[in-house]
Amino acid sequence: MMNGRGLVNRLAAALLALTLLPATAAHAEDGYALWLRYAPLGGDALARLQGFAPRVERASGTTGGPMLAVAEAELARGLTSLGAPAKTKGSIRLDCPRAGGDGDGSFHIRAVDARTLVIAGADHRACLYGAFALLRELSLGRDPRAIELDERPAMPLRMLDHWDNVDGSVERGYAGRSIFDWWRLPDHLDRRLIDYARANASIGIDAVAVNNVNAPAIFLEPRFIAKLRRIADAWRPYGIRVFLSARFSAPRDIGGLATADPLDPAVRRWWKAKADEIYAAIPDFGGFLVKANSEGQPGPQDYGRSHADGANMLAAALGSRGTVIWRAFVYSAEDASDRAKQAYADFVPLDGQFADNVIVQVKNGPIDFQPREPFHPIFGAMPKTRLMFEGQITKEYLGFSTHLAFLAPLWKEALDADTGRGGTVAGMVRRGGMAGVANVGSDRNWTGGHFDQANWYAFGRLAWNPSLASEAVAREWAAQTLGRDAGFLDAVTAMMLGSRQAVVDYMTPLGLAHQMGTNHHYGPAPWVCDLARPEWNPCYYSRADAHGIGFDRTASGSDALAQYAPSVADEWRDPKAMDEDYLLWFHHLPWDWRTRSGRSLWAELVHRYDRGVAAVDAMAATWDAQRSHVDAERFADVAEDLKVQQREARWWRDASIAWWQSLNGLPLPAGAAPPAHDIDHYRALAFPEAPGI
Amino acid sequence: MMNGRGLVNRLAAALLALTLLPATAAHAEDGYALWLRYAPLGGDALARLQGFAPRVERASGTTGGPMLAVAEAELARGLTSLGAPAKTKGSIRLDCPRAGGDGDGSFHIRAVDARTLVIAGADHRACLYGAFALLRELSLGRDPRAIELDERPAMPLRMLDHWDNVDGSVERGYAGRSIFDWWRLPDHLDRRLIDYARANASIGIDAVAVNNVNAPAIFLEPRFIAKLRRIADAWRPYGIRVFLSARFSAPRDIGGLATADPLDPAVRRWWKAKADEIYAAIPDFGGFLVKANSEGQPGPQDYGRSHADGANMLAAALGSRGTVIWRAFVYSAEDASDRAKQAYADFVPLDGQFADNVIVQVKNGPIDFQPREPFHPIFGAMPKTRLMFEGQITKEYLGFSTHLAFLAPLWKEALDADTGRGGTVAGMVRRGGMAGVANVGSDRNWTGGHFDQANWYAFGRLAWNPSLASEAVAREWAAQTLGRDAGFLDAVTAMMLGSRQAVVDYMTPLGLAHQMGTNHHYGPAPWVCDLARPEWNPCYYSRADAHGIGFDRTASGSDALAQYAPSVADEWRDPKAMDEDYLLWFHHLPWDWRTRSGRSLWAELVHRYDRGVAAVDAMAATWDAQRSHVDAERFADVAEDLKVQQREARWWRDASIAWWQSLNGLPLPAGAAPPAHDIDHYRALAFPEAPGI
Predict the structure, then answer these.
(1) How crowded is residue B165: how many other Cβ atoms within 10 Å of its Cβ?
(2) Which helix (H) or strand (E) holds A212?
(3) Per-residue exposure over A337-351, b if at least 16 CB sit within 10 Å of its own CB, e if not
(4) pLDDT above 80: residue B17
(5) Rounded to whole angstroms, how far apart are CA atoms B127 and B67?
(6) What is the CATH superfamily name and number for domain A157-481?
(7) If phi over 0 gives left and psi between -120 and 50 gives alpha, with beta otherwise, what is residue B215?
(8) Beta carbons of A94 and A68 less than 8 angstroms apart
(9) Which of A359, A495, A686, B192 is the most exposed place for a label (fewest CB within 10 A)?
(10) Across all residues in chain B, what is the average pLDDT?
(11) What is the signed CA dihedral for B97, B103, B106, B111, rounded to 10 degrees?
(12) Could you tell me where the DSSP H helices lie in A43-191?
């Protein structure tokens, strides 16, 4: 039985803990805290932390600085919130002698004795990343004195690309408005940008391109450089360098020159002066991200120059100070052969011509962030060029922020793919990096859907270490963000892991792609066939008619297959032997073609649509059973979104099946439900207000 | 000295209080809580509340219901947060027998004995408003047992108009994105909309028009009615009815008709059916807000019909169920006489022709929400018509959300004005109401600038009771929102009260108006004189040249003065005798004209610009001295904004003076500082990214 004094102490401690709680934890569970929620530990994990009871201290030789201060503040915040007692016994020692964050951030964590855990590395960046890693481990309930980590990043650039416009809109943004309030910068810096930097640092993100690749030149004007400087200053302690999307025609647009020809001396001087001006304001400016000669953007080809000419000119302007990231996402209005082949055809011949500080950024697949694509054939085909993997975190093609789709398995499919040319895709970007098109916005929960936070998290974790398993990433995210109950984590992790395949199944099964509505990309529109450029039309991708469906990319068709290494091409050449997930990507087949299941192609297609719909129903049921494990607020939000997803999965399935039936005249396979409406109903739907355009 | 048990009790109570704290109060002070912060009381006020220690109970005869539940929940939340003890002694009795909220919301609060305070009125709406009123009084530190209130609203409609677009942008919005996420409705209702309703209910707002008056017809489509229904259902317990801005040409745009002629039987049937459709979904739908034949919007004049024909047709469609609010903000492309005269000329002849359920909505002044205008001459001139006062809470013309300008004095100038026709402006709208163009958005603090919350608050309070003094409103807002220290409140209230005059002085002193930049209305542009329509140009309003400045609206000029009652016109006819705040609104005068100060008009103008700049400097100094009284977060936000305002006040002053000098060639008065730049500098500034267009 407790005496008065003991009770006083207990109550006083409880009071203190509440007072010290990070603001977010005591706040309504609106999702703002992300995975940095540091919910109080319980049971054995709490007892172990209380037994350790660490204070944070510096090793001799480690001095303070802005980045170390961030690490120390985060440890204090996290430890308190997790439940570490105020009266300390053990210690966490920060041993990162070099001030600043120039190193690669490699760190190790280990116990040097029963009471001392050390986070060590070359410089403050190591302690920054180590602090977040330690808090993650603690948050997962690990025994603090048994934690041993030895980590180094797999690639130098781990980046987020914002497609944010100057007016606050976000291209392909489904989470409110841009987090960058250009209008009020530099006078006012929204606190949100600090929490954004914290979240990024916690997963090792070290670079952010702040503006849309379809950028106006205004971002290069002096008053915008002042705005960017305020952001760069705020993010520097979090180890994040800013990049700017640069409009290639800027010398003409705002520089008063008559040309933007990259070989013109006046153009070269203009960019050099512009780079000098930026570096005077932002000494660690990351560099330029450029979308050139693609979808109407200006570029070196306007002057008969190559992508290498353009990129190298900008690289010379930056010099050793920064990097040009040049996007390989190009397809030309004139080439009607196969859009999937064009980036390879344009870029591979340039291998070896790019300057050392140029990185070519290549999308995960050869078309455009579809629910499933084979990996991009450029990976492995440009050994003398630094390459970067571009993934899309925002779900332009996977149900916006309303559909639950965990994307780690999508990225892993590409990253783990053996290129057949000396390594995996992940190995091919180890001198470059990974860039993800950001999914954050002004919504209080950052990403619109709560589970979309997991995609931001997973992208950062995979850029740090592409060999992490999707399951491990899902589980650690859910445990930090939602709750730690083991049964809950089993259920939610399984739901997350199957979610992307569900989207593939109800939207574009069996290797189909690009069947969505025009411009906004909302909902199914496989019937669209009248847009000006052939490759803008869903019919271009499905090639469906009365006889069959699919895009022949073998030697009898576009022969895009030949862009892959022979060992890879061999995997996909024979429709009978291949992984049917890519079947219609590479082959045009008759409707009655026999799939491995024994079903006809038509029946298999319907089967997969139905499987996708059923999977979403199962997800909704899974979630519904978790009510007791999640706060009411987020539980209801997710449940609402899943209802939408159930409805829209059916819409995709029904509209697609109705359209294919209108072409092939086939009856539905036995047991398959007819579409809820006729094809005219689906074709008549219009959504002029759809977001993200 | 306290024994163990006493300490335990104290600590336990503190712990409980912390636990029960509303989420927002324990959260970072980001402004989300608005004036419903319920910061814990201290000192005598806390002791009095603890001595009263009320529980909330219902009088016999008062039964539960959604609206009463809101009142009860808010009382519980507020009392706990203010510091009422868990162990109760006294009681707050809710005595509102009729369920629902059909009444006008009149309530009284008084003690029936030493332990019992009663909130009473006809129906649940009375208890809703009474609950918020009681919490306001308690939050201001009043002795609970001495509170005696007897309140009734001054007018039936107390309304906010949102100029929010379907894509999430907000016309003249400076606080982020729209709070209405039309895309995700009706599946998802943002919790923010509930807190918005709470805040509105707390100040007596009972109606909200959810979409921009420049509305596309899409809002009348069935799927948008479903979205609106979700909002209406959510707001009903808070006593708020939804209104929809309706596009007059909807029968043509979406109805398949060839005309929108209000006298066409098919058009009348279409609107009747549309109204029936809306009422089937929303039984208490408020009605339509219409901007017709103004700034390019369609209207009855397109068919040779009058505003009354158009309004009455819609009124017939609504019937007794709802109200048509018809805006008097019109000016025609053809009439070059004086824009200030046109609404009067168009509408006054129609007095007596409008149906009983039509309200004509009239802006506070005859032009357009300028920093200062005389009251609109329609007020008092349409005795047979229900009128509504339209004010602009969002600061389109008063520095966006970055300048601190408390608008109660602006509205009060109009509301308190004697029309000379049997009452004040406030009296003229007692059968109609007041509508304010909302200033809220997705920014975490709702309004962009923290002090802009005060304008939302003040608008609601004045609509409830226009005879409240600006000072009282400012003080009660600041006490609830920022802090209760008396010295702090003296300083901040004084700063707020002078702030709007400061804007008038540095932007458009002495009755000048409409001198801002084209389209975005950001910053000074008195030189603009080349826009297509004369009344779009600042030069149209200043009429400045080498010889003088000002708009002659006397009999020798446009004679707009004649639209006012003779007693009012007499006040403004003689420039020597009149209030010089309106001088150049009504008179064109030579630069060397002698003002009452003894200074020439030119010297007086410069003096007032300087006075405005000095006032902002003084505001910044006042705020800087309050550091210890406000949380660090909001202190810094406001200090940053005031820096911007100091810079922009100088910009307005310098650019204006430079321009007038370029016209009049006069030297600066002795002691006046020359503009920082020459006129070409100011004319060259461009802000293509300015918000709110």
Answers:
(1) 20
(2) none
(3) ebbbbbbbbbbeebb
(4) no
(5) 9
(6) Glycosidases (3.20.20.80)
(7) beta
(8) yes
(9) A686
(10) 95
(11) 10
(12) 43-52, 66-82, 124-139
Q: Determine the Cα–Cα distance for residues A161 and A325; give it in Å rounded to an integer.
A: 11
B264 is annotated as an active-site residue: no
Determine which one of A161, A368, A476, A641 is catalytic: A368
- Chain-chain contact of A15 with B18 (C-beta, under 8 angstroms): yes
Which amino acid does the sequence have at A241? R
A368 is catalytic: yes
- Judge contact between B652 and B660, C-beta under 8 A: no
| Phi and psi at residue A360, to the nearest 5° | -95, 125
B441-482 residue pLDDT tens: 999 999 999 999 999 999 999 999 999 999 999 999 999 999
With CA atoms as reference, report the closest residue to B664 among B545, B572, B554.
B545
In the CATH scheme, what is the code of domain A10-151?
3.30.379.10
For chain B, the domains span 33-151, 157-469, 506-551+588-684
- Report the distance separating Cα A352 and Cα A372, nearest Å: 30
Residue B644 has pLDDT above 60, yes or no: yes
Q: Which residues contact B9 (CB under 8 A, 6 or more apart)?
A: none
Q: What is the pLDDT of residue A406?
A: 98
Tell me which of B174, B177, B642 to substitute to probe the interface with A (most A C-beta atoms closer than 10 Å): B177
Which helix or strand (DSSP H or E) is residue A243 part of?
Answer: strand A241-245
A541-568: pLDDT as tens digits: 999 999 999 999 999 999 999 999 999 9
Residue-level pLDDT at A337: 78
Pairwise CA distance, residues A199 & A454, whole Å: 12
Average pLDDT, chain A: 95
Which of B74, B151, B390, B396 is labelled catalytic?
B396
Classify the phi-psi angles of A43: left when phi > 0, otherwise alpha if psi is within -120 to 50, otherwise beta.
left
Topology annotation, domain B157-469 = TIM Barrel (3.20.20)
Q: List the alpha helices (DSSP H) in B447-543.
A: 452-464, 470-481, 486-507, 538-542
Question: Of the candidates B187, B247, B237, B175, which has an alpha carbon nearest to the alpha carbon of residue B211?
Answer: B247
The one catalytic residue among A151, A396, A505, A604: A396
Is-same-fold flag (B33-151; B506-551+588-684)? no
pLDDT level of residue B334 (50, 70, 90 thresholds): low
Pairing relationship of beta strands B548-549 and B589-590 according to DSSP bridges: antiparallel
DSSP H or E run through A589? strand A589-590
Task: Give yes or no for residue A450 having a pLDDT over 80.
Answer: yes
CATH class of A506-551+588-684: alpha beta
* Chain A touched by B546 (CB under 8 Å): no
A681, A674 contact by CB (below 8 A): no
Fold type of domain B33-151: Chitobiase; domain 2 (3.30.379)
In terms of phi and psi (left: phi > 0; alpha: psi -120 to 50; beta: otherwise), the region of B380 is left
Nearest CA-CA partner of A200 in A169, A158, A234? A158
pLDDT tens, B372-388? 999 999 999 999 999 99
As for the ipTM of the complex, it is 0.91
CB pairs under 8 A between A and B: 109
Inform me whether the pLDDT recorded for B5 exceeds 80. no
Q: What does each C-alpha distance from B548 to A175, B544, B602, B683 come to in angstroms?
A: 53, 6, 9, 21
HSE-CB for B24 with a 13 A CA cutoff: 18
Q: Is B368 a catalytic residue?
A: yes
Residue A23 has pLDDT above 50, yes or no: no
- Distance, CA of A219 to CA of A99 (rounded, Å): 32
Chain A CB within 8 Å of residue B576 CB: no
Coil/strand/helix, residue B396:
coil
Instruction: State the Cα–Cα distance between residues A564 and A570, nearest whole angstrom.
Output: 9
